[in-house]
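Board notes (copied after class):
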Amino acid sequence: METETLVRACVPHLRYDRAEPFALKGIGYTVYRDTPNHAAQPSPSCRRFIKAPEGGTAIEYAFYYDFDIQHLYDLEHAFVYLDAEGAVTGVESSFHGKFLNSMIEGVLEFEDRHPVLYVQPGKHALMPSPEYFKLVIDRNRACREEAGAAGFLIMPMFEGRLFTDDETNRKVEAYIRETYAFDPTWEFTAESPDGLREEELLMPYGELDENIVRRLTVWSRKIN
């Protein structure tokens, strides 16, 4: 199967809180094929080394939002693992800097080969069930009282290309709190905030990387 067809066939389908204020601005993908020595390969978008199943494929999906409810810039991840026949054998997703197993029997749902993942309101961590968000102590507070608290978040891979300072961070915090603070409903829908489907937002990660720098540079100037 051609790479783009495979990527489209397996991209996770997301479920959003009905009050979610932020729409995805792109999904960057990276495909990892099994290597002759079955070596792990570095991700271009996070601090991970990805090992494809023997004879199979791993697909990394990087979900980009201009904002997290607590900071400017947000990139979350899902990883779908396929065996040599193209069957999904594993699904992992990101949760605030950690990567968790989402392929839990009796919990994770599929639409054809698309894993169904739930998006934490405002924060965008991914889980196979919304029930797991009850583990997060500040799940409501983060979206209201603590909105904007982290200012302009710049990850190591963007250092030297994006810039912030204390004044910018304060302005970002005020902008997010005044513009986007909200109360989650904890009711989830397959309709995204802007109505676009995941398949419409796919692009190679290198293209997304360039878009992120461009978009955040514009946002930084706008907020300042």
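Comment from the instructor: The chain is about 20% helix and 30% strand. The radius of gyration is 17 Å.
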